[in-house]
Every structure is written in C-alpha cells, then in structure tokens.
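Protein in question filed below.

…
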Amino acid sequence: SSSVCCRSEVPATGTTQPAASLGFRPPAPHFTKMYLCMCLYVVFTSGLTVFFIYLRTFIYSFFMRGRPFPLQILLFGMLFCIYNGFLQGYYMIYCAQYPKDWFTDFRFTSGVLLFLFGMGINIHSDILLRQLRKPGDHTYKIPQGGLFTYVSGANFFGEIVEWFGYAIATWSIPAFAFALFTLCFIGPRAYHHHRYYLRMFTDYPKSRKALIPFIF
C-alpha cells in the first residue's frame, strides 16, 4: 500500500490531544462572577472529559501494541476532535444554564456515575487487550476476562456508556450528539470485530455477544 503510516501509539495521542487542550480554556471573567455555581458544574464535568482524554492520550497510547496507523485517518481524527472539543467547550462556557441544585439533580448524579462506570470498563478492557500481545506480536488472540466474557467489543461498550453518561450529566445537545456519533461510529466496529472473531477462531465463545451483554 502507498498509504503514509505512523506508529501505532501516535493516533491516540494526536487525535485526542487537541480536544484535551481545548478543555482547559478558562471561562470568561463575567461568566465566573455571575454564575459561580454554574461555573463549578462546568469545571467539574469538563474536568471528567479532560481527565479521560489525557489518560488515553498520554498514558494508554504509549502502551499500545499494534501495526502502523494510516496518517490520513490520524489527520481526520484530529480535525474531528478539534471540532468536537470546540463545540463541547463553547456550549458549556457560553450556552449552558443550570439551576443551583444541579449537583443533586438525578440527571447529573446518574450521568457522572454512568460516565465513571463506562470509563472503568473502557480502561480495564484496554489493559486486557494490551496484555494479549507481547512486544512485536501482531497476531490476533481471543480477549478474555472482564466484560469480554460477555461481549467482543467490551472497550467499545465502555466508551459508548461513558459518553452517554457525560451527555446525561451535562444535559446538552452537543454532548448527546457526540454520544450518538460514538454509538454509530464504534458500534458497527464492535459488530464487525465480533464477526471477524467468529470466522477466525473455531473455538470462539458462541454465547458472547458483539456489543451489548446478553442482547446484541
């Protein structure tokens, strides 16, 4: 192939780092003075996102083991993350309106718990996937343990749950749009991975679903 490629750890770093940087944009001074409570909500929810992105960008990505990654996909990923980071940040800073008791609202608390639950699944699944291969090994193996006991795309499921949790916690249109995009983008990937595993491994667990435990 004539495609230009980069090292496997670069895509996770290059595509998500711009979005993480946008997350550190400080609120406008008048916003902080007029809406102190709302600013706390914005800082907290944005902090969750920035924490996960930096964790994936600067820690997980350098432990990835895989084949070279097409540079074109890296560039498209960077553009999307910049655009999405701008939308999320702009809405939270300039458009979002929350009541004073939003910290105790069921949508906020359940959304944060769902976000943390999904992030835990995502990180744990990524660790299990990394442990499948030794340095220089590019062969496919059957993932075992954790949510992989029930689905082929445990890491995908965790990320989808995570961003829907964020959308519920922020209760914003851009966040729900991003969560839906995540579902539509990586949901089919989980399905195709599942089909690939079934074709490649004759001993692949037949009871294991593609994305949603016991359902799909």
